[in-house]
Specification:
By secondary structure, the chain is an all-alpha fold. The chain is built from 7 helices and no strands.
Length: about 150
């Protein structure tokens, strides 16, 4: 009987593949935790938690899965569940760039690495701020409905 990978192991394989595709190390829980925590508005994850995701010992909660999928630009359903026919193909992308976005990326590539890093950090700050406002707005709506 063949050794069938568990759900956690299959998630780990998709996460590692997606990290490689995004030019991140699939072998560094430290890098995964650092990059994830930059983008996640909730309580930061530990390096130990990131390691468990990478080795197939745990699957992130839905809010963390959403952050991973958004960061790595893959559909959340694919990252969490895969497809019925996983042949090792590249994951489907959820990236939908218009011509203005493509021009911005092209312009960014004209910058030196230091300035590109500043732009990346600025975008991450804007994302965190936007998510925090969105979360505050949802909490306010829930409180008014209660």
């Amino acid at each position: 009987m063949a050794n069938i990978p568990s759900e956690r192991e299959r998630f780990s394989q998709r996460l590692q593949q997606t990290l490689r595709n995004a030019h991140h190390s699939p072998d560094s829980p430290t890098e995964l935790a650092r990059e994830f925590n930059i983008r996640f508005s909730g309580r930061p994850i530990t390096v130990h938690a990131a390691r468990k995701w990478l080795v197939g010992e745990a699957i992130p909660t839905q809010d963390k899965m959403r952050t991973l999928a958004d960061w790595l630009m893959v559909p959340i359903d694919w990252l969490r569940f895969g497809t019925e026919d996983e042949r090792g193909d590249a994951p489907p992308t959820s990236l939908q760039a218009n011509s203005i976005d493509i021009k911005l990326i092209a312009d960014m590539q004209l910058l030196d690495e230091h300035h590109r890093q500043i732009v990346r950090e600025f975008v991450r700050i804007l994302i965190r701020t936007s998510r925090a406002r969105h979360d505050d707005s949802e909490q306010g709506t829930a409180a008014r409905q209660a």
